[in-house]
Specification:
heterodimer, A: about 1200 residues, alpha+beta, nine-stranded mixed β-sheet, 39 helices, elongated, B: about 350 residues, five-stranded antiparallel β-sheet, 10 helices, extended, transmembrane helix (chain B), ALA-interacting subunit (chain B), transmembrane (chain B)
């Protein structure tokens, strides 16, 4: 089964389009590999090994899309691609060509480069280029429509504001860089360690780091305070994982002390790259050649823990360190609304071109008709008589005039393309993000983590989600593993659960007067506990071996933690896999306490007796074998191999003939456990004869010192030793559901969102979690697809499709619309089948089946398959998808989906780093989508439509006037007013409304999840609404323009005065239009809307108070006449009445859900307040919550 | 427009949160602002509000409409087109040639006063088809030059009338094309005095046209555009120029020529002696002489009154329509019941 899957991946046929593979492998190559550890039940071993000295650099799960990329790392590094670092000889190292110094610069600009670079970056936006192009056009004397100042002002304002923001951010970066660069490190110079600033550190120098210090650069370990050369590090700054990791110094260098003897050697390593989990190098020292892997290097930003000191040699410094190379921003996605909006903007551009064409053609016709009059017309005066030679004045012929008029009209009508909209949208999204981040209902109190907005441009997508793809472990569940029960030797020990009273403290170990106690308590089965204390019986021995396997076959590091009681010490098991931690804690609880681990041996306290086991070899977990094994030299001088792994691969290496009853019983138990939603592992062992051991040892050593193809050689060795095992038993680990998950899923389902679960777990586990999380209900019809060949997949898909159709027809027959409730279909499909389906012609069928199902569970899926499924639905269904996950294995899916959400949980921060939004708990998805998503979508949709309207109405008013100026683009409205229109006169209210307005209260939205459907059906923004808006715009512009035109026709009104009337009329109209659509009036809304109108009056007055402008004092004259105010009132009402009437008609004849819910809200509020009064009167009413 | 009850849904949740804050220090203090629970007014278009809004509009609009219609009807206006009639019959084939020729262009017209006209009576000239808002034209002026003697040479915008060897003051096409027909009125052979003072804006005289700026080299190039200016009078006193320089918004416009400070009786005949100098013949422009009284709403224009009546009437009709529906509805069942029914259908039926 698995081999199929492998070949699929190895052939490079990953079920992902190329671009994702590239992007995801660029960003988190490592994440994709490490995933496999999780998918098969907790063998997450990433880069720890226990071989003495030469540790093979095994890459876990290094197959699939990455295998080719990384196959190179097994090859000899050739000299051209290598970086040569001479140990303790920075001069020579940097002699040939200088490697980067250790100073870092995250700041983008210096004082000198700020202006050009910042401008350059700002002009990357299309909007600004448009602005700039228009402004430049306007500078040509023939085309100067606006005054120079006026035409540049808006662009200047925007550029200035952005530049100030950028400068401030950069200043902060510079400050932190400075602090970072001036930190001190101990560096070996002139035969002694001296303090040196970080920025002066050079590649090739020897650095000494003490406990709890940060690493100044990437360094290869030479020696540590631990005699075996172990160093523990914490990588919180790098990937957020807080558990300790182990790194090793090579034996060849461990004993050397630079202060006593001179160390010299040469390290040949890869060029700097951003793969933080990979490193490939070899070191020549004392004539020997030693290979170095990822476990020998410590990266900048890590902290040294539990190790007094460590010596290392800097290999990458400054900007070439892996930490700095990985410093890249969040991925940028574009929201669906914005994509749609860009379509309408194309319509608007066409509209703009049409307007400009009309003007220029009419102008041409006018010129043609009057061509003989032009010379004498007082207002045209074609010829210039001032010079002796009479020439045409500013007239370039008929054709050119048309062309110039066209360009000029583009300048005048420029705001038809709502450039300011892009800037307002950014501001609004920042505001919306602020409120999402500050929302107390999305604050995870356990981890005190707030909601995070990492991507700022897809807020509104949250309101249109149709599919949610969820990871299981850590997302639906807490990923806090607890040992639940075990099946040992064919006997199920899952009976008693309670801790015996006297055993409350759990198991204690006494060593040298010190009492050790595991940090976490585990519930024990009393029967098993008593068995574990017997050594004589067969069962007892079985149990003994089982727990030895649990305690030994892992990569957990025990750490002792001091407590307030000096005699008592807690043992904290640190490791990368929570499953392993749970197993070791369980073993400890049953009296098999792992006390000490060094690279060569482990010490286990067995029922109070300290036993030392030599760890002779360890075959790490990899995703092909899906198991790991450890070869132990026991105190009685026997050799044993212990193996633990996923059942699928373990049963093939277990000798079934040995005791078939036990195997059979264990299989039954496994089935039972997984149906309860437990994660299972099978444990086996074998005694090795001396010859077997020797044979293994020689091949193991050969493999691990091999310079080429080390990983595959080691795998071969592992295959050889891991066979004909006898079964010990199986363990079951419980992963609890997160709080509120069933309710959240219920809400999402009611909201019309389809929830899919994609998990690496077994089918039974997945289904049982599905039941407990209410994803699956007993009423649903389940379809299961798990096949091993393409043909059978095809067949089962066809069957499934038939079944779906039958059920749909049946439900139609029985009870029409409401009957569809009865026949919900759930599809369960496994990874092996997906191998045959994704990327083949069967995709279409899967899509058809899946889109008919309410729930889809995908189990045993690989990370790239997760992304493939997301891509399938995203591309075919053309619906919005959301992926939520917490682990590195979800990264590709998170990046694939329209919206990616990371759970900031137990498994590090890779998912969060790749996500658009991050939060603490799965259940926060409900307020995020139903409340914030709904609001954001509604707000943003309205804002876009409103901005289209706002700009077009102004352009149309300008256009109408052009028709009365013989098509020469004179504007009655002053230049300054046209420029300030979208900057000051009308911008604030729409931003405020875009951030603050709420169509419905949070309570209502949560109570009726169905209201979410408005976003899915795109009710707030669609082509129909766009065209209706355009019609409305047309009418309003006509009202605003023609009322003054007719009222003042044939009067002595001058251009500036009527221009002021138009300006003010449009501004009032546009702001009242917004006011009419506001759902909730806060004081801020009032301030913004009325403030804008007042600001417009003030601006118009100020402009008209400048005697240097032709329109001097015009406003004060016209505002003194009654006709002005009569026009204003008339325009406002006449313009807005049709919209108001349509609103009422829609409300009366076809109210939408939101309208109904709003009215219900109102009715309820008044009823509640009435009820409250009645209730309050007779007795004191205790608060309900 | 509608309801005004400030309400907030913060209630229960809010108070629960504040007590929570005391127990758990991690939870930040509850803030109405960050939780988006600021007190707000949630207007809803209930039938009552809709009907009241429509009624309010019609109550305001219909009276205004009636009043402005009356005001417009009260205005007495005499409009007399003379551009063709003032061309001698022999020159009508070549009007442009006539107007450019040095012939005498005096012309006598008689106007009859249809109704009693109360002083002041405004004399306007009206030009049709004259694009004073043409881009080439409006831009061809220098406001700096008009204000200060120091900025005399600030004529870059004035082309093609900026200088003809010497700087022209006032420069530009606008000033160059100054209207130069003149009118004299007699009634019963008595000269009617025309008051030409104060026809321009005071703000223009005080701040826009300099008291120490005198016309220079004006109208002395090959092509004469219009009137000459008295070089001894400062620009601030050249009121005809000031009026002309306020370029009109629309291609059909009037400019104030002067005021008659006597009442005119119905049936009076007024003889106008006019100098028909201005060339509008080259572009088929019409010239009209207008005598008009004024009202609070300005000149004679029925449009606004009619528009107000239409909008007011429409709103009244809408108010009636909505009321009828409302009454019919209330008879069958109460609004709340209706809402509940709709809700039940919407939320329970479709899920």
């Amino acid at each position: 089964m698995d081999l199929n899957l492998n070949s699929q991946f190895e052939s490079g046929n990953s079920p992902l389009p190329d671009f994702i593979r590239n992007s995801s492998s660029q960003r988190s190559t490592s994440s994709i590999q490490s995933i496999y550890s999780k998918t098969s039940g907790g063998h997450a071993v990433r880069e720890v090994g226990f071989e003495l000295g030469s540790k093979p650099s095994v890459r876990h799960g290094s197959r699939g899309a990455d295998s080719e990329r990384f196959s190179s790392s097994y090859k000899e590094i050739n000299d051209q691609d290598a970086r040569l670092v001479y140990i303790n000889d920075p001069e020579k190292t940097n002699g040939k060509f200088e490697f980067a110094r250790n100073s870092i610069r995250t700041g983008k600009y210096s004082i000198l480069t700020f202006l050009p670079r910042n401008l350059f970056e700002q002009f990357h936006r299309v909007a600004y280029i448009y602005f700039l192009a228009i402004a430049i056009l306007n500078q040509l004397p023939q085309l100067a429509v606006f005054g120079r100042g006026a035409s540049i002002l808006p662009l200047a304002i925007v550029l200035f504001v952005t530049a100030v923001k950028d400068a401030y951010e950069d200043f902060r970066r510079h400050r932190s860089d400075k602090i970072e660069n001036n930190r001190l490190a101990w560096v070996f110079v002139n035969d002694q360690f001296q303090q040196k600033k970080w920025k002066d550190l050079r590649v090739g120098e020897i650095i000494k780091v003490s406990a709890n210090e940060s690493l100044p650069s990437d360094m290869v370990l030479l020696s540590t305070s631990d005699t075996t050369g172990v160093a523990y590090i914490q990588t919180t700054n790098l990937d957020g994982e807080s558990n300790l990791k182990t790194r090793y110094a090579k034996q060849e260098t461990q004993m050397k002390n630079p202060e006593k003897e001179k160390i010299s050697g040469l390290i040949k390593c890869e060029k700097p790259n951003r793969n933080i989990y990979g490193f490939q190098a070899n070191m020549e020292i004392d004539g020997k050649r030693v290979s170095l892997g990822p476990s020998n290097i410590i990266l900048r930003g890590c902290e040294l823990k539990n190790t007094n000191w460590a010596l290392g040699i800097a290999v990458y410094a400054g900007r070439e360190t892996k930490a700095m190379l990985n410093n890249s921003g969040a991925p940028s996605k574009r929201s669906r609304l914005e994509t749609k909006m860009n379509q309408e903007i194309i319509y608007l551009s066409i509209f703009l071109v049409i307007l400009c064409t009309i003007v220029s053609v009419c102008h041409g016709v006018w010129l043609r008709l009057h061509k003989d009059d032009l010379v004498l017309m007082q207002f045209y005066r074609k010829k210039d008589y001032s010079k002796p030679k009479v020439k045409d004045y500013n007239y370039y012929g008929w054709g050119m005039e048309i062309f110039f008029v066209f360009l000029m009209s583009v300048i005048v009508f420029q705001i038809m393309i709502p450039i300011s909209l892009y800037i307002s949208m950014e501001l609004v999204r920042v505001g919306q993000a602020y409120f999402m981040i500050r929302d107390d209902r999305m604050l995870d109190e356990a981890s005190n983590s707030r909601f995070q907005c990492r991507a700022l441009n897809i807020n509104e997508d949250l309101g249109q989600i149709k599919y949610v793809f969820s990871d299981k472990t850590g997302t639906l569940t807490e990923n806090k593993m607890e040992f639940h029960c075990a099946s040992i030797g064919g006997v199920d020990y899952s009976g008693g659960k309670a801790l015996a009273e006297d055993e409350q403290t759990g198991y204690l170990a006494r060593v040298d007067g010190q009492v050790f106690r595991p940090k976490m308590k585990v519930k024990v089965d009393p029967e098993l506990l008593s068995l574990s204390k017997q050594k004589q019986t067969d069962e007892g021995r079985h149990v003994h071996d089982f727990f030895i396997a649990l305690a030994a076959c892992n990569t957990i590091v025990p750490l002792t933690v001091e407590t307030s009681d000096p005699a008592l010490k807690l043992i904290d098991y640190q490791g990368e896999s929570p499953d392993e931690q749970a197993l070791v804690y369980a073993a400890a609880a049953y009296g098999f306490m792992l006390i000490e681990r060094t690279s060569g041996h482990i010490v286990i306290d067995i029922q109070g007796e300290k036993q030392r086991y030599n760890v002779l070899g360890l075959h790490e977990f990899d995703s092909d074998r899906k198991r790991m094994s450890v070869i132990l030299g026991c105190p009685d001088n026997t050799f044993k191999v212990f193996v633990k792994g996923a059942d699928t691969t373990m049963f093939s290496v277990i000798d079934q003939s040995l005791n078939s009853n036990v195997v059979k019983a264990t299989e039954d138990h496994l089935h039972f456990y997984s149906s309860k939603g437990l994660r299972t592992l099978v444990v086996g062992m074998r005694d090795l004869s001396a010859s077997e051991f020797e044979q293994w040892q020689s091949s193991y050593e050969k493999a691990s010192t091999a310079l080429m193809g080390r990983a595959s050689l080691l795998r071969k060795v592992a295959y050889n030793i891991e066979n004909s095992l006898s079964i010990l038993g199986a363990s079951a680990i419980e992963d609890k559901l997160q709080q509120g998950v069933p309710e959240a899923i219920e809400s999402l389902r009611n909201a019309g969102i389809k929830v899919w679960v994609l998990t690496g777990d077994k089918q039974e586990t997945a289904i049982s979690i599905g039941h407990s999380s209410k994803l699956l209900t007993s009423k649903m019809t389940q379809i299961v697809v798990n096949n091993i060949s393409k043909e059978s997949c095809k067949k089962s898909l066809e069957d499934a499709l038939l079944m779906c159709k039958k059920l749909t027809i049946a439900s139609d027959a029985t009870g029409g619309g409401s009957g569809s409730r009865m026949t919900e279909i759930a599809l369960t499909i496994d990874g092996t089948s997906l191998v045959h389906i994704l990327d083949t012609e069967l995709e279409e069928q899967l899509f058809e089946v899946a889109s008919k199902c309410t729930v889809v569970l995908c189990c045993r899926v690989a990370p790239l398959q997760k992304a493939g499924i997301v891509a399938l639905m995203k591309n075919r269904a053309n619906e919005m998808t959301l992926a939520i996950g917490d682990g590195a294995n979800d990264v590709s899916m998170i990046q694939m989906a329209d919206v990616g959400i990371g759970i900031s949980g137990q498994e590090g921060r890779q998912a969060v780093m790749a996500s658009d939004f991050a939060m603490g708990q799965f259940r926060f998805l409900v307020p995020l989508l139903l409340v914030h998503g709904h609001w954001n979508y509604q707000r943003m949709s309205y804002m876009i439509l409103y901005n289209f309207y706002r700009n077009s109405v102004f352009v149309l008013v300008l256009f109408w006037y052009t028709l009365f100026t013989s098509f020469t683009l004179t504007t009655a409205i002053t230049d300054w007013s046209s420029m300030l229109y979208s900057v000051i006169y009308t911008s604030f209210p729409t931003i405020v409304v875009g951030i603050l307005d709420k169509d419905l209260s949070r309570t209502t939205l949560l109570r009726y999840p169905q209201l979410y459907g408005t976003g899915q059906r795109q009710e707030s923004y669609n082509a129909k609404l766009f065209w209706v808006t355009i019609l409305d715009t047309l009418w309003q512009s006509i009202a605003a323009f023609f009322v003054p035109l007719i009222a003042y026709w044939g009067s002595d009104v001058d251009g500036s005065s009527i221009g002021d009337l138009w300006t003010i009329a449009v501004v009032i109209m546009v702001n009242l239009h917004l006011a009419m659509d506001v759902f909730r009036w806060y004081w801020i809304t009032h301030a913004a809307i009325w403030g804008s109108i007042v600001a417009t009056f003030i601006c118009v007055m100020v402009i008209d108070a400048l005697p240097s402008l032709p329109g001097y004092w015009a406003f004060f004259h016209i505002a003194g006449t009654e006709l002005f105010w009569a026009c204003l009132l008339g325009i406002t009402i006449a313009a807005l009445v049709p919209r108001f009437v349509v609103k009422i008609l829609i409300q009366y004849f076809g109210p939408d859900d939101i309208q109904i819910a709003r009215e219900a809200e109102k009715v309820e509020n008044s009823r509640e307040s009435r009820d409250a009064e009645i209730e309050m009167n007779p007795i004191f009413h205790p608060p309900r919550r | 427009m509608n309801s005004n009850t400030p309400s907030s849904s913060a209630g229960g949740i809010g108070s629960a949160d504040t007590t929570g804050a005391r127990r758990n220090s991690k939870r930040p203090k509850y803030s109405r602002f960050t939780q988006q629970e600021l007190p707000a007014c949630k207007p809803i278009l209930t039938p009552k509000w809709v009907i009241s809004a429509f009624l309010l509009v019609s109550i305001v609009f219909i009276p205004i409409g009636v009043v402005s219609l009356y005001a417009s009807r009260d205005v007495v206006e005499i409009v007399h087109r003379y551009d063709t009639d003032c061309i001698p019959a022999d020159a009508r084939n070549d009007k442009v040639g006539f107007i450019q020729s040095p012939r005498v262009k005096t012309c006598n017209r008689t106007l009859r006063v249809p109704k009693y006209m109360k002083k002041p009576i405004y004399i306007y000239y009206q030009l049709d088809n004259f694009y004073q808002n043409h881009r080439r034209y409006v831009k061809s002026r220098s406001d700096q030059q008009l204000r200060k003697t120091g900025s005399e040479n600030d004529t870059s915008a004035c082309k093609p009338e900026d200088n003809n060897g010497m700087t022209i003051v006032p420069c530009g096409l606008v000033a160059w094309s100054l209207f130069n027909d003149t009118y004299n009125f007699t009634r019963n052979n008595q000269l009617l005095a025309i008051n030409k003072r104060g026809i321009s804006w005071k703000s223009d005289r005080d701040h826009k046209f300099g008291k120490d700026v005198y016309p220079k080299n004006f109208q002395n190039s090959t092509l004469i555009g219009g009137a000459h200016l008295d070089p001894l009078k400062p620009l601030s006193e050249q009121e005809d120029l000031i009026v002309w320089m306020r370029t009109a918004a629309l291609p059909t416009f009037r400019k104030l020529y002067g005021k008659i400070e006597t009442d005119l009786q119905a049936g009076d005949f007024i003889n106008v002696t006019l100098e028909n100098n201005y060339n509008t013949y080259s572009f088929d422009g019409k010239k009209k002489l207008v005598l008009s009284t004024t009202s609070w709403l300005g000149g004679k224009n029925d449009f606004l009154g009619k528009a107000y009546l239409t909008v007011g009437g429409l709103c009244f009709f809408l108010a009636t329509w909505r009321s009828i529906i409302f009454v019919m509805e209330s008879e069958s069942r109460s609004l709340n019941k209706l809402l509940t029914d709709i809700l039940v259908n919407a939320f329970l039926g479709t899920t």
